[in-house]
């Protein structure tokens, strides 16, 4: 019984090292294909508009993900995040600037996050 409890404890710790796996299956295509949807997520993150349930969940982890350079992101989540950020940076640089001002005002994480975005 003790061994079973220890194993469960270790599984819980390992599972806590990553964000919820539901983010792995998030369909980013609507965001990439529709600027209105992409900007609605951006406005949510900036506290400038309402948040869809998924956007609200993402918004909660932005500060930690930025601070840890996506340290708790699964490989799939990292790929999805990079694709969405690339779309925002290219198509809406003003929104990207607002996001960086809100979440990294002193640009403390800029270099490490830029490096993360360039990784394959």
TrEMBL record:
A Pfam family: OS-D
Key words of the record: Signal
This protein's record includes keyword Signal: yes
Cleavable signal peptide: 1-16
UniProt keyword annotation of Signal present: yes
InterPro entries (UniProt xref): A10/PebIII (IPR005055), OS_D_A10/PebIII_sf (IPR036682)
PANTHER family to which the protein is assigned, alphabetical: CHEMOSENSORY PROTEIN-RELATED, GEO07322P1
Protein name: Chemosensory protein
Species classification: Eukaryota, Metazoa, Ecdysozoa, Arthropoda, Hexapoda
């Amino acid at each position: 019984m003790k061994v079973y409890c220890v194993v469960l404890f270790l599984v819980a710790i390992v599972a806590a090292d990553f964000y919820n796996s539901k983010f792995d299956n998030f369909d980013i295509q609507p965001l990439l294909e529709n600027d209105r949807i992409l900007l609605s997520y951006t406005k949510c993150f900036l506290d400038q508009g309402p948040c869809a349930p998924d956007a609200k969940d993402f918004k909660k982890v932005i500060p930690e993900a930025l601070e840890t350079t996506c340290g708790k992101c699964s490989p799939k989540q990292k790929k999805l995040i990079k694709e969405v950020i690339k779309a925002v940076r290219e198509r809406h640089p003003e929104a990207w600037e607002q996001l960086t001002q809100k979440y990294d005002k002193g640009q403390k994480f800029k270099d490490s996050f830029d490096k993360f975005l360039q990784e394959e």
